[in-house]
Every structure is written in C-alpha cells, then in structure tokens.
Fold each of these.
Amino acid sequence: MKPMMETARFHDLICGGKLNRRQAHKIMASFGIGTVATQTMAGAAQAQEADEEHPVFFTWAGYDEPEFMVHYTGKYGREPNYAIFGDEDEAFAKMRAGFEPHVTYPCGPSLKLWYDAGLLAPIETDRLSNWPDVLQIFKDVPNSVVDGERVYVPEDWGQTALIIRTDLAPEYLDPENQTWNALWDQKYAGRMAMSNYSYEAFAIAALLLGISPWHMNENERLQCEDLLRTQVPLNRALESSFTERVQAIASGEVIVAAAGNGTYSELAAHADGTDFEFTFVTPKEGAITWHCGLCIHPAAIRDGFYEQAHEIIDSFISPEAGVYEIGNWYYGHSNKKAYDSFSEEFLLSIGLSKNIEEFLAGTQFQQAMNEPEVLALRWEELKAGF
C-alpha cells in the first residue's frame, strides 16, 4: 500500500504534476473526498465516450493511463470503458450490489473473498502473448489458481522491508543482523519506526516468532501482541506522515524503520549530495510483498467480451506497460523483460533489482489475515499502552 500524506504535501505534488492518478485518488479518498472525473487531473487525457462495443474495466485511478493499454488500442482502435474505484472494499461492495464490469483489478488479500463471492471467471493463459514472460514467482502467488483454474494474473508489486541508517548503525551492514528483530534493538530506543498498519505490524511480529502471519489462531495472535507491546515504546512516532517519516530517517532521528519502495526512493533523493548512508534490506525472516493484478468478471463471458478481456490483461502485462510503471511509478512489474530497459543502479535506487526471483526469495506475499477487525482494534490498544 502506498502511504498517505498530509494535505500540504498533497497540494504541492498535485499542483506540480508529481502524482499519478491512482495516488491522487487514493489520497483524496483518505481525506474523505469522493472520486473525481479523471479528466480533471493535471495532464490527463481527454475522457472518451462510453462505447457498448468495448468492455468495462473497473480499476484503481491511474490505471486508465493510455500507456497501459497500448496493445489493446492497437488492436481495437480505442481504449476500453473505465470505471474507477478508490479502494477494494468500495469495489467489492459495488459489485455485490449488482454492478457487473468485465475486467477488475484486485490485490492479493482480496482474491479469495472475490472468488468466493462469484466475481472471478477463469482466465485462459494461452490467449496471453506476454504470459511466458511473467515471472514464475508471481504466477505462483496464493489464490491465483483455484481448483485448477487460473483466476488472477499479477501485474505490479512492492515491498515492506527495513530501511536502516547504516552510517549510524553500521552493525546492520552484516547480513546476519538484517532481521526484523532490529526494530526491537534497545540500543536505538526512541529512534525506531514500526509500520502503523495493523496487518503489517502483526505480520512483522509473526515472522519474527516463526508464525505464518496469514492464518494465525488466537494463541498466536496473543504471542504477537506480547511482542508488539515491547516494541511500541521504542518508536519515535507511529502516527507520523509519509513526509515526516522520510525526513526523520534523513535527519537521523529514526535509524531503523519498516518502510516500502516509495520511502526508499524518496530517501535516495534526499541523500543526493549528502554524506548520510542507508540501505533497504530484506529481513532474513522475509519481507512483506504486496501485489495487484487483473481478473475477469463472469459478465465478460455473458456479454461477449471474453476475448477483449484477455487483451486488456495482455496489455497490462506487456513489457511496454512494465517499463512505464517502473520508470514513472517506481512499482515493480510482473514481466521480466520490463527490467531490461533499466540499469541495475537505477533499479536498486528505487528498491528493485534486475534479478527479481533472487530479490524476492523468502518473501511473504500479502494475503487476507484472520479477523482483521480484531487486529486493527488490538493495534490501537497496544499503541495506547494496553
């Protein structure tokens, strides 16, 4: 998940054209502002009229950028029809209420829920010309194949791992010390930054305890609570904004932080021309990797859009779409050929690598967690000292 930011920074970035539409819509949703028409965003393409000869693609804001749909438009002469959602809960509720798009764009934790609700149709990978170039590690993500049928094609991804100021904590240059346990290092009390997302905080604790984060029972959750109770007092702050967290790491106020690719790339910009050193490391217990991708709704079969639905997916997993997304959004992409267009130096500067399979070895792909509402409540109580 991309972190949210405060209104002043949002205003500066949107006015400067530095946010893509997905980021802007998601941030506005966090402020309680409804989704706006895509043509009102700075630099957006002119909205096209709906066309009944083309399927409806129900997706995040930003994924209506024409660079993602080059193959589809090359074949059909225009883009599909777009419907935009702010988050997956909104999308799920709308579809359960009767909205029937033809292609959707969920993320890993939603797959089982959407499948069980009858919202996912089989995908025939032999119709996808770019399927052979999708990295195997993403083909195998949980819940992408159900009862022998593929229902999900991964497209992009990012990680929550550790950012460490190695000039201030040089012992963490040693791979043996690169563990989630760094967030419990009493030596740096008051200079930590745990993730403020309940599901990530509990997942980190579970990984450190050798527990599978995604299927915890009550006893395992209580073990994680006990561990997190000892970590919370070590943090400089948990409620800080994305900008404040980046600045705190850059200034040395925070030495060890749970953070994602966006924080890493922002820090790289801060570090330019300075002497401070930091690293983005995968803890030996495993990083937490989110991924999102494309699914076909059963309505595509009924409405005669099954072939076009596959063309939308094929466009998104093309190397051209991957080059655009890596180069402009700093997300990872599922097509291995997309990385050929970038130097290893650039990829490392945004928390990626050319050797993705090795880079993601031992990662934990994010899934739905048991009783997420309980985790959220307990996390708030733990932060309050209970």
Note: The chain has two domains: 48-151+295-344, 159-287+366-383.
Amino acid sequence: MRTISFELNEEDERLIRAYAKSKNLSLSTLVRDTVFERIENELDSKFYNEAMRRHKERPETVSFEDMMKDLN
C-alpha cells in the first residue's frame, strides 16, 4: 500500500478530523472515498456532455414501449 501526504493548516485539519470522526471513518477512508467520488462525478459529467453533444447533432427518440421490446 502507498502513502500520499499533503499539508493542511490547523483549522482544516481539525475540521477534516472532526468530520471523519462524526461519520465513524478513518482519515484514509474519508479522503480516498472523497477523491474517488470527485473523479467519478467529473467523468459522469464528461460522458453526459459528450452524449448530449452527440444527441444534438443527431437527435433520436425511442418510445418506452420500443425500448422495452429491444431490451427483452
């Protein structure tokens, strides 16, 4: 397992430690989960924007019934 370190001022450290404690999480878990959530949100946004761009270029609609037929 690898270690990443970063600097915080005392106020930020207290806030992060208190938050982790209130959620019954270790600092490592809190930071790791928060970073991964941010990455996931950015990727979701990127994929959404790309899908919307493609849809605007070539709009296509499918009825719910047709979608269900295709899925079955």
Note: The two ends are 44 Å apart (CA to CA).
Amino acid sequence: MQTANTNMLYTVKEVAAILKTNIDYIHKLRKAGLLRFLKLGQFKVRKETLEEFLQKFDGYDLTDPLNVIPIT
C-alpha cells in the first residue's frame, strides 16, 4: 500500500531526471552546497528541499555552481 510519503525522498538519478540534467551536474550542485542531500546508503534529497532549491534559485544562472549569477 502506498502512502503520501512514497515520494518524500529522491535519489541523485531522480533529481537529475526532474531537473532535466545529468548526474554529474547534480553532484556539482551538492558539492557546491547549493542543494542539500542526506546519505542513506546513497545520496538522497527531500522533496521539500528540492522545491526550496528551485524557488531560491529561480532567475539565476547555475551553469557554474561555484559562480551563481542572476540572469540578465
């Protein structure tokens, strides 16, 4: 039986698919401290954390996670 919390955590691969990017780029975001993960065997991110990330960086160029700039 599925519960409301079934999709509470996303793997790196799932986050990459959601953001339409690749796994290596998700790890760059993680290493830069822009997207927080927890490690339960493998890295996972909470759904709420991903939503906060998207809201916080809306309107920014994240091409280089170490040099985030507003989109002009």
Note: The chain has three helices and five strands.
Amino acid sequence: MLSERAALALFVACAFHVTACSDAPVTPPSSVASAGTGGSSSEALGSSGSASGGASTAGQSGAGGLSGAGGAATPAMPCASYMDESGWALLVQIKNERQQVVYLGQKDAQCETSRPFEVRDGTRALLPALEKCQSTCQQLMQSGPTTCALACAAPSTIALQPGETLKVPWDGRFGVPQTLPATCASAAAQGTSACVQAAHIDANVFTFAAHAGTAVQCLAGAAGCTCAPNANGGCIAPGSVMSGTIITTEYLVKLEPGETSPSGEPPYIGLVFRD
C-alpha cells in the first residue's frame, strides 16, 4: 500500500532543458524489493537514494538458440511466457501550483506519445511506455502485428491553469522488447518476430517525472493551437509543442501495486509543479 508515500515523496520543480521522450528505452534489471530515500530542492533536482531492481523480468530471457554453460543451447521459453502480464489500477496526478500556466507535452515535433510522465526504477533505468503503434508478443501469437498509419499523429500539449490537476490512469505496465519464436507466432504474423511484451511493475521504489514548458508553440499557426477541454483535466491543443523554460518535477515513491489504500480511496502518484 502507499502508506509510506508521504515519507518517500520527492516533489521537485526545477529548470531543466529536456527533449520529451528522448531517453533510449532500456531493458529493466531484475526485481529486488528495496527502500530508498530522497532529498529535495526548490531550484534543482535532489539526489535520491539508490535502490536496485523494481521491474518485472517476466519473459526477458531471449528465445531459443542462446548458449548455456559449455556452449549447450538452452531450451526455448514456452510460448505462454510471452503473454502480456495483467496490469494494476494506478493513478498519476499532475498538478500546477505555479502562478502561471504550464504546458505538458513534447519539446520537439515528434510523434505523439502515450503518456505525459515517465517512470524509472530504483536504478534510474527508464521503463519504456507501451505505445499505441507497437505489436505486443501476445498480438503476434493471436491476431498478427498492429497496423499503424504511415504518418504518425501530430504532437499536442495539455495546458494546466494555476490550481488545475491532470489525472492520468495508468495500469502499471511497461514494454519489454522480445523476439518471438516462429513456432509461437500465428499465421497472421507473416514472419514478424520483433514484439514488445507488456510487463507490470513489482513492489519497489520508483521515480516518476513530468516535464512542462512555460509557453506553447503552434506547429500550424495560431489556428492550430485551439485548446479544447480535456476530460482528465486542463485543455488539450493538437498540433503544438511546449516551449519556453522547460521545468521538471519528480516524485519518489515506494509502490506495492495491486493493493488498495486503508481509506478505500484509490492510491495515486502526485507530481506537482511549483514556483
């Protein structure tokens, strides 16, 4: 449960120039439950205590053909090992407590990403998001690869007025790159073997982060920046990227996914932008 959240929470707002979604995805390390501590600063990112593991490793081993001790080939993993793992019910809340509007989104005109926050495990390794235009291993086994549009969706920004909160449901899952054995793929896979397995996080210490700009840049002129109310909070403007000063807020928390809070309210991850 998240009863330790208050002691471990690290709310940080700082000036930090980044390119959204520019981190190269990495395969998370083995899961080892551990605790961590974090410092905070109103101007710069605080250093957090280290913790190992924090990510599920189901299905991370390569499929058949790997060499074991003495050069012997290890058996291929069962096809069931590539199935998607079930998710948790988590909520990420991003709040603007600054005096000015902040804009969540991307800094560059890249394809739109699936979530306005990032998650790192206890070793600060990025847990790659499950993007819409990805083929999961389960899909390759059951129905074939995902069909994606030739042109990706234009990026958008979410404007948060002072005091506004964006609520983002998250199932606690991330993508683990895999190579599906041909014997496991359906006929519809048509020779496709590269896939992503949806793996859920394990109980451990995680760092959540959100980036926002102090201004917004329209990609198609002023007409392309029309902001419409967003069902989860703030308003969304298609065809725009964040600009100005890029600020970052982080939150260090120990999670025990799948458990409900004692009060019966759903647990949430709190990210706050402050002056």
Note: Residues 137-142 form the longest helix (6 residues).
